[in-house]
Amino acid sequence: MGFEELLGQVGGFGPFQLRNVVLLALPRILMPMHFLLPIFLAAVPAHRCALPDTPVNFSHQDTWLEAYLPREPDGSLSSCLRFTYPQALPNITMWGERQSRREQQGETSAVPCPQGWEYDHSEFSSTIATEWDLVCEQKGLNKATSTFFFAGVLVGAVAFGYLSDRWVPESARWLLTQGRLEEAHRYLLCCARLNGRPVGEDSLSLEELSKVAAVERVVRRPSYLDLFRTPRLRHISLCCMVVWFAVNLSYYGLSLDFSGLGLNVYQTQLLFGAVELPSKLLVYISVRHAGRRLTIAGTLLGSALTFGTRLLLSSEMVSWSTTLAVIGKGFSEAAFTTTYLFTSELYPTVLRQTGLGLTALVGRLGGSLAPLVALLDGVWLSLPKITYGGIALLAACTALLLPETRQAQLPQTIQDVERKSAPSSLQEEQMPMKQVHN
Fold first, then answer.
1. Residue 162 Cα distances to 157, 224, 337, 351, 353, angstroms
2. CA-to-CA dists, residue 235 to 123, 230, 242, 417, angstroms
3. Which H or E run includes 118?
């Protein structure tokens, strides 16, 4: 008797397992809040160079700023530069003759803010950007803080994922593999009682548990190398790694960058959060009818198209850009949800957790690089969106290379996965049987 048959005796998936699933799901409610913290902690409010005190008889603040701050190509006042000396403006004669002499001497060049910056505190009283002046030339460090955060998540997933395998005395399977039969016996009886199954101590004797434990100990502990030992598993692993990387990169690239949307950070996150519910409902319907492979490919393609379409919009079309960003967030969330389901069904039971762990690790790497990709706007303003969309498009094509798992029996062993990739060899094995029958 195997462990699966043992679980069937105590009720399979019943109230006991449902209770555990609910308890495990509660932390998932808080996790997105932590992952999106950089949006608020590293927010960059409106800012400009710190300027000398406004004269007492100078009442027009806008004119004062225009005298000191150069204009950007879009017509806005610069946030990172100021004139060495104030420029003479129409109807302003207080610097007239002195300014003319300085212009002749070339002393009105724009320079980085020598006295620091002044920030708009109407939305955020304090962020790491305002505390440490992580703006302008230092904005790369501000983006890097998000990368450090996700890198910490990546390291924590590896370290604590490994440790968690040794912190679960509630797992009957783990107790059996460790030879702790009496504890596993008590655990299984408790499980059967909560599931309402009339299982006595005799039907779950220590002798039976000892046989199950012997079988469980024979099974070799899987490793990450097993994901690449055979051709079919290697193909699945490489494709899934590309998909997970792209899903995380596009999801966090869109979630952490909401510039040009015309909304404040709270309104943007409200819209981004509201679209996740219909996106999950879309996934529920799509995976049942279109299948897992087409769903993940379609949602990634949708994300890529929203990135590409936003590139075609002018800066004045703010409402359209906002609409496309929200739609893109919905596609990204749908891709994220489908990826978990699809990956878990592709790997055999003996390697399912190992496969999910590796692909999720690669996904965290994509999330870590997402904030740094935003820095490519210094090379070309459209380059970040092209990168996010291009990688999502590549992953959509890669997902089509994976086998469909809808209505398919989940593989239990590595051999089950490899058999699906070699129909010709199976036919050759069956030919002698047919000849014998004839």
1. 8, 13, 24, 15, 11
2. 49, 9, 11, 11
3. strand 117-119
Nearest-angstrom CA–CA distance, 398 and 276? 24
pLDDT of residue 4: 64
For residues 192 and 237, which has the higher predicted lDDT (pLDDT)? 237
Question: 10 Å Cβ neighbour count for 110?
Answer: 14
Give yes or no for residue 426 having a pLDDT over 50: no
How many residues are there in the chain?
438
pLDDT in tens, 369-389: 999 999 998 899 899 999 999
Residue 93: CB atoms within 10 Å? 10
For residue 77, the SS3 value is: strand
Confidence grade of residue 423 (pLDDT, cut at 50, 70, 90): very low
CA distances in angstroms from 16 to 166, 190, 353, listed in the order given: 21, 9, 22
Residue 35 CA to residue 388 CA, distance in Å, equals 19
Cα–Cα distance between 310 and 392 in angstroms, integer? Answer: 15
- Work out the burial of residue 343: count CB atoms within 10 Å of its CB; fewer than 13 is exposed, 13-18 middle, 19 or more buried: buried
From CA 208, how far away is CA 2, in angstroms rounded?
A: 10
